[in-house]
Amino acid sequence: MIEPIADLAKKIHIRFKNRKLLENIFIHRSYLNEHKNYFLPSNEKLEFLGDSVLSLITSLYLYQKYPNLEEGDYTEIKAAIVRTESLAEGAGELNLGNYIYLSKGQDKEGGRQNINIQADCFEALIAGIFIDQGFDSAYSFVLKYLFGKRLDNIVKNKLYLSPKSRLQEYTQAKFRVTPHYSVLEEYGPEHKRTFKIAVFVGQKRIATGDGKSKKEAEEAAAKLALEKMT
Question: Does 123 qualify as catalytic in the annotation?
Answer without folding.
Answer: yes
